[in-house]
Amino acid sequence: MFATTALLVFMCLTITTRADHHQPCHTHNMTGLMSVMSLKGEMKAFGTFTYDSVGRKLRFKSNESHPTNASLDLDLLMFFEEGIFYEIDSRNQSCEKKKLQMSLHPFDIPDDAKLHSTVTTGSSSIEGEGLKVNVWTGPLTPMKGSYSMSVTMGCLPVTTFYFTDTTTFLFSNMDVELKVKDPDLLVVPSFCHGKPVEDTPEGTVNSFLNEFM
Questions:
Q1: Tens digit of pLDDT for each residue in 122-171?
Q2: Sorting pLDDT into bands at 50, 70 and 90, what band is 21?
Q3: Is 46 within 8 Å of 54 (Cβ atoms)?
Q4: Which residues of the chain form beta strands (DSSP E)?
Q5: Given the DSSP bridges, would you call strands 43-52 and 57-62 parallel, antiparallel or unpaired?
Q6: C-alpha 52, offset from chain centre
Q7: Phi, psi dihedrals of residue 16, rounded to the nearest 5°
Q8: Can you tell me the distance from the alpha carbon of 137 to that of 15, in angstroms, rounded to the nearest whole number?
Q9: 151 with 22: CB under 8 angstroms?
Q10: Maximum CA pair distance of the chain?
Q11: Going edge to edge, which strands form the sheet with 30-38?
Q12: For the segment 54-95, what is each residue's pLDDT rounded down to a tens digit?
């Protein structure tokens, strides 16, 4: 029921005139909260994020101060430019260093994204009761699937749907500030220094999205 309702709402929001020949904007530095939910109604993760849009660096940490029924406890440090990321366990002072096979993530619009539509969530006729967003879409290369990102006119990602053969995820960004509040979060912890890159098993696609699957 939840999945059917969510997809129906999504389809209703995007029934507008298609817009062509638009180039994706590039997002700002950001700090905020992010939730990840499957369309089966399962809360996969909830936590804080820090994103450096110039250096293309991202830190996501599950937030223990916000009690949820999230099924995943994650601390991820992503270097999209270098194609490397770390799975961090600060409690045990350990980490794993891995290679990224897909750089897609919900904090920036891919260069090859297509502008699907421009919509207003809520009401466009009542002041303060609507949010105008551009909806960008594209494929999940090299995975099988697609994505749909809703981005404000000021280039702030609000929600992203990821559709795959087996599941659908909704990433939502909240309480966003347009700055990197703590640059140290984007620095590799000392206990991770010198770690070799782990071998990637055949058929595995390492990505930010796959950490939640």
A1: 988 998 889 999 999 999 987 889 999 999 999 999 999 999 988 899 99
A2: low
A3: no
A4: 30-38, 43-52, 57-62, 75-79, 84-89, 94-99, 114-122, 130-139, 145-152, 157-164, 168-177
A5: antiparallel
A6: 13
A7: -140, 180
A8: 14
A9: no
A10: 57
A11: 94-99, 84-89, 75-79, 57-62, 43-52, 30-38, 168-177, 157-164, 145-152, 130-139, 114-122
A12: 999 999 998 766 656 666 889 999 999 999 999 999 999 999
3-state secondary structure of 60: strand
- 93 to 45, 71, 87, 89, 189: CA distances (angstroms): 22, 22, 11, 6, 9
Whether the CA torsion 194, 198, 199, 203 is positive or negative: it is negative
Burial class (CB in 10 A: 0-12, 13-18, 19+), 189: middle
* Structure token pair of residue 115: 């502008």
The gap from C-alpha 116 to its chain's centroid, in whole angstroms, comes to 19
Question: Is residue 13 left, alpha or beta, with left meaning phi > 0 and alpha meaning psi from -120 to 50?
Answer: alpha
pLDDT value at residue 1: 44
pTM: 0.86
118, 135 Cβ separation under 8 angstroms: yes
Q: What is the rounded distance in angstroms from the CA atom of residue 51 to the CA atom of residue 160?
A: 16
Residue 44 CA, distance from chain mean position: 13
81, 75 contact by CB (below 8 A): no
Q: Which two tokens stand for residue 143?
A: 């995975």
